[in-house]
Amino acid sequence: MEDSNIGTHHELPSKWHQTFYTLWLGCFVTGMGYSMTMPFISLFINELGNFSRFELNLYSGMAFAATFISQAIVSPYWGSLADRKGRKLMCMRASGVMACTIFITGLSVNVWMIIGMRFLQGAFSGYINNSIALMAGETPHSKSGWVMSAMTTAGVTGNLIGPLLGGALSGAWGYRIPFFITGGLMFGVFIATSFLVKEKFTPIKKENMKPMQALMGQIDNRQLIVVMFITTMLVQSSVMSINPIVSLYVKEMMHDTGNIAFVAGIVAATPGLGNLVAASKVGHTMDRIGPKKVLTTGLIVAAVLFIPMTLTNSPWMLAFWRFLLGFANAALMPAAQTILTLEVPTEAFGRIFSYNQSFQAAGSVLGALLGSTISGLFSYSAVFAITGCTLLLDFLLVYLTQHRAKTIN
Prior knowledge:
The chain has helices at residues 16-37, 41-46, 53-85, 87-105, 111-123, 127-138, 144-173, 177-196, 212-217, 222-240, 246-253, 260-289, 291-309, 315-329, 333-343, 349-377, 380-408. The chain has a single domain, classed as Growth Hormone, Chain: A (Up-down Bundle). The longest helix is centred in the N-terminal third of the chain and has 33 residues, at 53-85. The protein is 78% helix and 0% strand. The chain is globular and about 60 Å long. By secondary structure, the protein is mainly alpha-helical. It is built from 17 helices and no strands.
């Protein structure tokens, strides 16, 4: 994880490495905790009532979407507060509340309690997003690509390990145990963030803050910023479209026999493994050739990889194609975040990244509801076909925006 070029301490603030590793670990635990629980939440819900296939798909989609609906609504407020009070406080708020809500989710006695806790969790979430914003403000631009990739890799690495650990725990002791463990781990993240993270930030009074319109006026290519928001939404939608139904899809492929939870965990984890393998190389490539070229290449490759996923009837082939998808995913969200970091004034990081989180949350809602609705009305494979089309459309949007900017210049 350590980059040899980043060892020049004179370019970095004091305690930078301690802050970086603490936040990296916090993002890792956040990603792991999420993926320990969410791929199996549909199976958990199924234990709480006698639901039809459509009802189960619908409730699973609602459980996924609840967090992101509240997140999309509340994120701009937290972003404004982050620009006034600092990102460290936002990381503490997110990890502390998540520790409580995730633990209580494990105590749920019906599906509405799960949905309610997920909604509350979303209203106070944002650990990874604020960690990235904090590091963006503390890191020289010449290293932004690597640092954004490294921070994203933290969550991805957690997402890789989480399904395997969650599948093993769920198979052995039931679906509630991963929620209890995740709640405890997030409390540890809260403690570590409180004492080990150092942020060079001077609080700003509300009346002294520049309005967002004035800050956006300082950006040369405002259209590119909006397109990055849309890209974040569509990329997140592509990631989330299969998550609510992945365990049910695997269950159908395996004809309801064998260790479904474990196999579903592997299928859920494979994009993370591919992402982990490619992330460091992609980060260095962004610093060398620029994030815009990396983003367009990643989008077209990802769109193409969804084609074979629509045709497979084996969970192992699905896992293989999703592993390759992880290589492309390593070039998507980090590239969009790096573009925002390089194009946006530092004093607007909190608000810009919070808007980006709102679009990411909207993408999670779109993906979760799209995946559960399409699979309920048509088939699971149809989810992949539509997801691939959305990424292709985003590629065209990004390409045309960049081409227009070159024409103007």
